[in-house]
């Protein structure tokens, strides 16, 4: 079994990886973490430097995720792509043909603070009623089963 996880090192992505580990431990799947570095819209030298830094940080997050999965007894690998996250994840599913694609639903919920939580309450309510743009795109186009994990 081959499970592909959209992974960016965020809290929700880490929770999704942990859920996959718990749900599929008995299947001994190959876990492939896919991260997408989105190209900057402005091609200045400053933005290129920021993009390179973001790409390196994403690679570190992917490597940490792979290490976590391996410590849990899984075979794990990573794929780092550049471009539009929706299109790159779709292309990765077509290229690697996973048995399951897992994504964590995006959340605008901050990690703490009552003031920050109250400021984003309305956005959170809308988020719970809809999928994010990446989730919706993949739900319509992915050619493999898709598991969208809710954000806590």
Automatic annotation (TrEMBL):
Residues 2-150 form the UspA domain. It comes from the Bacteria. Coiled coil: none annotated. Gene3D superfamilies: HUPs. InterPro entries: Rossmann-like_a/b/a_fold, UspA. CDD domains: USP-like (cd00293). This is Universal stress protein. It comes from Halomonas dongshanensis. The lineage of its organism: Bacteria, Pseudomonadati, Pseudomonadota, Gammaproteobacteria, Oceanospirillales.
